[in-house]
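Re: beginner question about structure tokens

> Can someone show what the tokenized structure looks like for a real chain? I only ever see the sequence side.

Sure, here's an example I had lying around. Input first:
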Amino acid sequence: MREFSEAYLERTREGMWDDSRQALEPLALDSRERVLDVGCGTGELSRVLAAECPGEVVGCDADTDLLEFAGEHVPVVAGDALRLPFADDSFDLVVCQALLINLPDPEAAIREFARVSSDLVAAVEPDNGAVAVDSSVASEERLEDQARRAYLEGVGTDVTLGADAREAFTEAGLEVLETRQYDHERTIEPPYGEAALTIAQRKATGAGLADDRETMLEGDLTNEEYDALRSEWRSMGRDVIEQMEERTYRRREAIPFFVTVGRVAEAQ
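And the corresponding structure tokens:
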């Protein structure tokens, strides 16, 4: 499973559910007594669950460094998603966000979620192949699409899982109740915050692309093609910084997430 830094999780999940929580309605959060957030990371979803649930919300993650941040908001327990340190039926809802896309066997994780749930299991998973970008820098959308496709070809897990999580739920023996879509939008516009400036600098230096180089080369991308892409990427980053200096840079990114909810067999 891939590991993520606290800064990465904060940057990519910042603002999720602030605009609407309608896609979470099938979880019936207002009636939950004990909820487990698996792969909670720094606790972005845990905080939302805690705000909506009258009962207890517990965060669980294998990365104890990330749990230090999540623990500021909810009780946390270190544990592996495939071997949860809880007894059967310990919770009435087990949920994860952007976790299954990083696992080689999502079905195995869902089975484990069902073991510790007496009622519902839910997964909030993106389709990273359907990300839409609109930018004031003409080349940014094309280059991000090219880099994304190269990354998807090389990554070892299904990071486009999205709505297809329904199949994994069914294979794990759950009754799929509903799937709802939530589009997480991230916007950069003036005035620019520190995070936006850091992203622009990483584009101009090619650092962000360099982080994914090994994965991208696992697919069909050649070293020569990667070098050409990185050169264009850095040029694009310089254009971003130039527009930022002129306060004309604007970027909108929409990532489709799918909330899939299933009921464990014992609760049918």
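Each token stands for a local structural state, so reading them left to right follows the chain. Residues 1 and 103 are 6 Å apart (CA to CA).
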